[in-house]
Structures are given as structure tokens and as C-alpha cells.
Amino acid sequence: MGNHSDGTPTGADAVAKAGHQEVDVFQDPGLPPHRLRLADTDPKAAKRAERQVAWLFIISIIGTLVFFVGYFGVRLDDTIGTLRIQNTLLGAGVAFAMLGIGTGIVHWARALMPDHEVAEERHPLRTEEDRQAAVQIIDDIVEETGIKRRPLIRNTLIGAVALAPLPAIAIFRDLGPLPGDVLRHTLWKEGERLARDPDGTPIKASDVTIGSAFHVIPESLNDLHEGKIAAKAKAVVLLMRLNPEDLHPSEGREDWGYNGIVAYSKICTHVGCPVALYEQQTHHLLCPCHQSTFDLTQECKVIFGPAVRPLPQLPITVDSDGYLVAQSDFHEPVGPSYWERG
């Protein structure tokens, strides 16, 4: 056979390479010897670990309570200090709520749950036996966790898990009420003048040239003192002028524009991003967030991207002074389509 002590591929500790006939067979080394932990041999150590896990779960509970103190207890004023206090309590509360549960479960598994390795052979599937085996596995898992005989850990874990999601619920609830019919109504109404955003200057039809695009708000927004941001967010419009022959209005919408001037909601019907890009040559409106593309010549029909609904059109005309005005409000809700619109 020859001497392979120089490390050739047929040596005892080498890896076989292509072209060599001799391949060593690796034997299954088996499971490593099990090393007992201190908690496995010392009841006092096990009890101490149990208390540590419980304290970690209690820290999680305290973190959740701290969050609510910051959320409901700190009243914001015009000072930056109060805002910093609230943000500190909110951040620390959520951090300790999540950290307490995560660290507690990890410490519980490392110190108290069985850690021996098990190897099982794969057996042919038998429906009833598999069901019984699955039930037995679940029972074994519950038994190995020790949750039945360690009520302190069980009760503190239940408390921590029950309270931990509440900060997230509070944060999401603070985003505002469900839209309902709110987006069905904006500041636009019959006779409302179209004004430039943001200075609020009314727009005459003669100001709008072919290929131009205006970001438009209702003129009455200038006189609004409360809820101005929310009202503007719903009512913003894009105003453009095309050759009238390039437009293809559907039946009933022939008079929704004026000499090729049309107005559409600026709010993308995908997730509500502002549609702010107008391609003059193709007459396409683009949403920069997810690249939804709307064809202006086909009543802003979606031709690309994740949006599934055209941009709502604002019916417009001109008043006796030549200013562009709305004929009415939008005929459908503005904004994204991911809630029930009824």
C-alpha cells in the first residue's frame, strides 16, 4: 500500500480526492458526554435560577408599566424637556419589556430546562402512531420546561406576556381612527378656487400652459386655523394641461376638465404617498415610493406598479373671472385602497 505518513489523500486523517480509490470511512462519534449543570445537582442553585427568571419577567412587567406612565402620565407642553422625558420613558419601557421576556426565557432554557441531546431514528409513518407520538412529544416538552411544577415562573411569564403587547397596541391606536368615510369628503366644493401650493394664490386657466403641472390646494385652506394639515393632506391636487385631443374621458366625464386642463388627487391609491412626478412626453404620473404609474390620457388609469385604482379626478371649470374652480368634491374617496370602503 505504501507509506502515507506524508499526508497523502489516503492517509488516515486526510480528505479523499478525486482519482483515489482508497476512501476512509468515518465512524459515527456518537453523542458527547453530558455535563451536568449546577442547577441539575444543587437544589438551591435551581431555586436561585428560578427566582432570577421570575425577576426578569417582573422587569418586563415593570417596563410595560413605565411605558404607560410615559404615554399617559406625561403631559406634553411647549418645552423640549417634557418631550425628552416622555421619549425616554417610552423607549426605556419598551426596551425593558422586551428585554425582560427575552432574557428570562433564554435564562430559563439554559439553567432549568433539560439540555441533554437526543438522537432518534426515522420510522415509517403510521397515522395513529404518529398522532400519539406527536401528543407524547408535546407532553414531553411541557414536562421538560417544568412549567407545571414551577408556578412562580409560569405566573410571572403569563403576566409579562399579557402586558408586553399593550405598548404596541397603544402606539398603533395613536396613529388615529380608522378612516371610515373621512376620506370621502375634502375641502373641495362647488365654486372653490384652485390655488397654488403653498402660497395659496388662485390660478387662472390662462396661467396653465400645455405641459405644465401645478401643485394645487383649495383657496379656503388659507383661512383654516385648526386641522389645516389634515385637510391639506386630503385635498392636495395635481393640475396639468394637455392637448384636448389627447384626453379620452369616459361617458359622463366629458366636462370634468377645461380646454385640456385636468386635476387629479395627488395621493397615490397604493399606500398614500404623494404622486409628484409628471412625464410631459408620455403624460404619465409617477409615484416615487413604489413606482406606481398612472396614464393621464386615460383618466389616470394604473399602467404599472402595485396601485390597483386610478387617481380620483376633481371636476373643474372656470368662473366669471377666468379662475379655475371645482365643480364639486371628489366623487370617490381619495387615498389608498387597503381598508374597507363600503
UniProtKB/TrEMBL annotation:
InterPro entries named among the record's database cross-references: QcrA_N, Rieske_2Fe-2S, Rieske_2Fe-2S_sf, Rieske_Fe-S_prot
Alphabetical UniProt keywords: 2Fe-2S, Cell membrane, Disulfide bond, Electron transport, Iron, Iron-sulfur, Membrane, Metal-binding, Oxidoreductase, Respiratory chain, Transmembrane, Transmembrane helix, Transport
Membrane topology: Multi-pass membrane protein
Superkingdom to which the source organism belongs: Bacteria
Record localization: Cell membrane
Transmembrane segments: 53-74, 89-109
Main location: membrane
Any single Pfam family the record assigns to this protein: QcrA_N
Occurrences of domain Rieske (ranges): 261-325
Entry's family note: Belongs to the Rieske iron-sulfur protein family.
Purpose: Iron-sulfur subunit of the cytochrome bc1 complex, an essential component of the respiratory electron transport chain required for ATP synthesis. The bc1 complex catalyzes the oxidation of menaquinol and the reduction of cytochrome c in the respiratory chain. The bc1 complex operates through a Q-cycle mechanism that couples electron transfer to generation of the proton gradient that drives ATP synthesis.
PANTHER family found in the cross-reference section: CYTOCHROME B-C1 COMPLEX SUBUNIT RIESKE, MITOCHONDRIAL (PTHR10134)
Protein name: Cytochrome bc1 complex Rieske iron-sulfur subunit
Organism: Arthrobacter stackebrandtii
